[in-house]
Amino acid sequence: MAKILKIYPDNPQENLVNEVIKTLQNGGLIIYPSDTIYALGCNIFDIKAMEKLAQLKKVKLEKSQFSIICNDLSHLSDFTRPIDTSVFRFLKSHLPGPFTFILDANKSLPLAYKNHKTIGIRVPDHPIPQLIVEKLGHPIASTSIKDDDEIIEYSTDPELIAEKYDHLVDIVIDSGYGDNVASTIVDLTSGEPEIIRQGKGII
Fold it and tell me: Which residues constitute the signal peptide according to the record (predicted)?
């Protein structure tokens, strides 16, 4: 059964955050809040956890498109090829925020991302995922839990989310009602922003 932890942005309890960190370090899956919708996350360097995440999404890991959640732009060089100054300034002006930016991947990606040509980077404007990444010491893999055929409450109400994913994840972070609009996906691989999916973020 998933453990529900009530962690709120204005005063996140350190012991509860530490429990989330320990779960991630041990290969567990979490559901966490963001500046858009609730999402699934796991340790990006734990291949078994990544496989569980892929199974949950009913995709093959090698074909998955899980984004990488960072707490700032300091991790960019770990995952992406060198980017132009203009692109970096563009990223800096829009992050943290409700965007997923597609960038050219480098060859130092974690095992689960090997052979990926591009990678999606997110820096949510929300204290909890930022704190999780900061305390964990590296980014986490992430994917939306919102499906097109689901009623909207499943993506906004953490109690309903916990019911649905009770035996599928280890922790559900209850941070109150979430938003019901996903991030805007922007492709920056050409150097110019191209909107792939219009979501909450406005360019």
Answer: none
Bridge partners (DSSP) of residue 4 are 172
Count of the separate structural domains present in the chain: 1
Distance, CA of 128 to chain centre:
12
pTM above 0.90, yes or no: yes
Tens of pLDDT, residue by residue over 163-194, are: 989 999 999 999 999 888 899 999 999 999 99
158 C-beta neighbours (distance < 10 Å), count? 20
Q: Residue 203 falls within a domain, yes or no?
A: no
127/17 Cα distance (integer angstroms): 11
Task: Check if the beta carbon of residue 93 is closer than 8 Å to that of residue 202.
Answer: no
Sign of CA dihedral 184, 185, 188, 193: negative
Q: Which of 99-108, 147-156, 172-181, 191-200 has the lowest mean pLDDT?
A: 147-156
- Which amino acid makes up residue 77? S
Give the pLDDT confidence score for residue 193 in this predicted structure. 96
CB atoms within 10 A of CB 167: 7
HSE-CB at 33 with a 13 A cutoff on CA atoms is: 25
The one-letter amino acid at 179: D
With respect to residue 140, please indicate whether it lies within any of the assigned structural domains.
yes
What pLDDT, on a 0 to 100 scale, did the predictor assign at position 179?
Answer: 87
Is residue 109 within 8 A of residue 6, CB to CB? The reply is no
For residue 29, what is the domain's CATH number?
3.90.870.10
Task: Report d(CA 173, CA 16) in Å as an integer.
Answer: 9
Q: How far apart are CA 26 and CA 9, in angstroms?
A: 24
